[in-house]
Amino acid sequence: MPEPDSQRPEEDQHEGDPTEPRQATDSCDDAEPSPDSELAEALREKEQFKRLAQRAQADLVNYRRRVESEQESSRLRNQQRIVLRFADVIDQLETALKSDALENADSGWLEGIMVIQKNFVNAIAAEGFARFSSVGEEFDPRRHEAVISSPSADHEPNTVIAEHRPGYTQHDEVVRPAQVEIAIAPTAEPDDESG
Length: 195
Known about the structure:
Nucleotide Exchange Factor Grpe, Chain A, domain 2; three-stranded antiparallel sheet; three-stranded mixed sheet; elongated
């Protein structure tokens, strides 16, 4: 028959008590970490934090580059949008200057309108926008927008034979395609032979 708790030896009663210090039964359990293992752990942590810091720094640099690239792209799109509005004004001025109604216009007034049109052209050229000519070139969908096609025996098919609105480039990139008329092969007329 087991002894009641009160009759057990004193050391048995304290065995499960967590408040009492435990006596060493195993020399491995009580061994404090050696300075070498603490140093190795600290070096591992240092390397881990260093890698984290480097990764965070690289992420920040990439973020800054992306934001700068997006800002530059947005700035260029806004600049193109504004300049192309001026290009429309230039087109309208050129159309007005070609009008037959100007035959009776005051020459001083007409000369002033021509100077204004030229100043618009120079202003957008100063911003890096250049007009390109298309007449005589082969149709290129990256540079041209075909608005009319006309049969022509004088031109090769797919050749630009007239320009209705000039195109513009910026840094060799087309920002507004030219609206053009292109030649197509004339249709063969049926023979009127009877008989």
